[in-house]
Input
Amino acid sequence: MNKDCNILINQEQNVELTTTETTNKQNFSLDFKKSLPWVIFVVFLSVLNETVFNVATPSIATQFGLQPSGASLVITSFMIFFGVGSVIYGKMSDTYRLKPLIIIGLLIYCGGSLFGFLAHENYSLVIAARIIQGAGCSAISALMMVIIARYISPENRGKAFGILGSTVAFSEGIGPAIGGFVSANYHWAFLFLIPLFTLLSIPFFYKVLPDEMPGNGKVDFLGAALLVIGVASLILYITEPRWPFIVIGVALLGWFAVHIRQSEQPFIEPAMFVKRKYIIGVLSGFVLFCTGMGILFMTPLMLSHVHQLSTDVIGWILFPGSMSVIAFGAAGGSLADKRGNPFVLLLGLFLLIISVLTISLLVEKSQWLISAALLPTFIGLSFIKTAVSNSVTQTLEMDEIGVGMGLYGLASFLSEAVGTALVGKALDKRILDFSLLPTVTEPSAYMYSNMFLVFVFFILFGGAVYMSVFRRG
Output
């Protein structure tokens, strides 16, 4: 469950708040037919890069002799810097010129990708490359939304966001199949080369984007650094429990809490933390998205360890479910408009729980049966994200949406990083490696079956947190 269409919607809401003001400042419009294909091209490749590595984790773990928690760092390192970077670039777009920001972001992204390919035999350097990738890729996530809101004419803007949403969904859907195919038939390191195609877009953006005047805002780089290093330290502690990690993490996050109360333009507005309904909505999303990412991270490992499947077959097993989001994503939004967000969330919870319980019971059965059982997982997660995103938005005043949804998006990214790290560590410890369900007789499947049961508990807990304040709506 990566950076998906609902995060795209959140970013659209953020940038549209300043569209009118920006349009008045910038009497400039891009040619819709010439510019949108390049925007779609860059976004497609950036989202693809996020999804292909999830399927490749079994191959990466095998090459480096990693436990699941070690393999999880390939995912979490990218997510942390991607999430924080998206907020930073979004804020920088109001202060600095857009053209150099995009070009610098693309160069960082591709530089990290090339570095990762060349250094693929060294685990530590691969993690460093994923961090650089995340820092660069976050520019695409944030700034492509700004381009549409700022430089696409109002009559074409809605169409552009709609096409971009479909692009994100399609890229997420096709990603597992491509990642599995490349990893199985070539080498997982070739996945690092996919982002290099985005270099083709630099001449276009350099040529067509205007040299607008810089703004007067200020970016809280210190706050961003404290947050990202603090969170990264805590996640490292989950992966490798050494006391310096937790001491550094707690100290930096404490400093961050003090800093944002003293800064004139803080990275996160502290006033948002006193809005009870908003915070509970964000927390419920954190628990549910954390659980969802844990499921999606563990599933390829389970298919590899229990069924001894290659990554290309794993990719095709995930493919129907991931593609189903395209068909059912819009349905969730329509249902929310007609029946309300709580109804959509409960429907999503029901589908997700049924799916997870089915996989828990049949974890050692036919892999294609598991593929069918995964369909409700992807659809349920899509419904849940739609309901939570809409509900959180409704707790905010118009002048709070930019800040509020920025914090919500950041929490969503970080929740997925935490979910991946926690599941990886739980698999390392093998604390659930015992026989429980009578339908599971293969010892290699015990741990995975029981983990799926644990996921049900967290799904119910996250749903209960949500329903405690959003019973109607």
User: Anything to note?
Assistant: The radius of gyration is 21 Å. The first helix runs from residue 5 to 16. The domain at 270-472 is CATH 1.20.1250.20 (Growth Hormone; Chain: A;). The chain has a mean pLDDT of 87.
